[in-house]
Amino acid sequence: MIWVTWRRYRTTLVVATTVIALLAVATFACGSIVRNAEGARAFGTFFGCYGTSVTVCRAESALSATAVLAAVLPVLLGVIVGVTAFSRDIEQGTHVLGLTQSVSRSRWFWMRVLVVFVPISVAMAVLGAVLEWTRSAAPRGNFGYVSGSPFDYSRLEFPLFPASGATAGTYTLFALILGSAFALVIRHTVGAMVLTLIVATAGMVGLQVGARPHYAPASIEARPLDGSAQYVAYASSGASFPGWTIGSGYVNTAGDPVAVDYASCEQAYAVDYVEGRPDETVAEYEARSDELFEEQQRAFTDCLRGQGADHLEVRYHADSQFRRFQLTEAALVLLVTGLVLLPSLWGLRRLRP
Which class for 251: exposed (0-12), middle (13-18), buried (19 or more C-beta within 10 A)? Predict the structure, then answer.
């Protein structure tokens, strides 16, 4: 039965694993260039090297593209391979031959999982491991997505997290099993592909947004009410912050969130430019500018305090928890994959020779 399944799907399997292997080889080559270059980052801009011949910059950009592709490839494999591994036989009626040759439904199903799905999932895990290796070149733990960016890019975020060893492999297996489930239940190739695309994408996004922030208690850093912390309260990007920032905001002395009316506080910065005077030197002009800025800072801080804010809290997960989060999410995805097998087996029971 293994040989029959291999002959039936060898083209699909060879093409899929070859594409993944080529990506892994290209990633290794680009990673070697970046790792041996002084001051290089593990991820660069897609367009920053246009018109130039800077090898390192092109290698950084190639790694950026590969990371994004590796993050979305599990969904594509689920749509193309997971669905067609079963729907093609069902629509053509060739499954009848297999199920009437003293082959049980379970064996007919699991042979495809073993021969087709498992090798592809393992290949994706290898690609993710190679991508992880390339990121060790980033200085200070900064995985800047755009070369020269002032922002830190945590390994716990998209696309770096799903494009890593454990999650890349388990996400692929999940998408493949999901595709087979829709193929066996609705028995329509196009419909199964559309549903696989939607559900697999929603599942990955749901884990990123809804589950991953809760894999561990968030660390909290308290920052004083001064200008150095104001920008963090406007967004959760966590610029120049060593980890994955999941939230930030002003709180009172008891640690309760404070709803700040930024519109009223921004009046402190109504004057954003200091006119130069004909009779003053550059040093005098800079001193006046610094004095104005300090006054604006004090006015903004007083406005925040007047609304009950005591300090700024930044909630984050340290990048050092990467391996823990990887194993947690991989286990969670495998659990969900096991649940997805239930409709697959139900559809398999309904399948008639």
Answer: middle
Per-residue pLDDT tens over the stretch 201-244: 999 999 999 999 999 998 888 888 875 445 444 434 444 455 78
Residue 281 token pair: 């030197």
Residues 272-297 have a mean pLDDT of 80
4 within 8 A of 26, measured Cβ to Cβ:
no
Structure tokens at 199: 């559900």
The one-letter code for the residue type at 306 is G
Which residue has 């899929």 as its token pair? 16
Question: Residue ranges of the domains in the chain?
Answer: 2-216+322-350, 219-318
In this structure, what are the phi and psi dihedrals at residue 243, rounded to the nearest 5 degrees? 160, -170
Euclidean distance between CA atoms 118 and 102, whole angstroms: 25
For residue 320, give the 3-state DSSP assignment.
Answer: helix
The answer for residues whose C-beta is within 8 angstroms of residue 243's C-beta and 6 or more apart is: 152, 154, 156, 219, 316, 317, 318, 319
**Bridge partners of residue 220, in order along the sequence:** 315
- Identify each DSSP E strand in 152-310 by its residue range: 219-223, 243-251
Name the pTM for this structure: 0.80
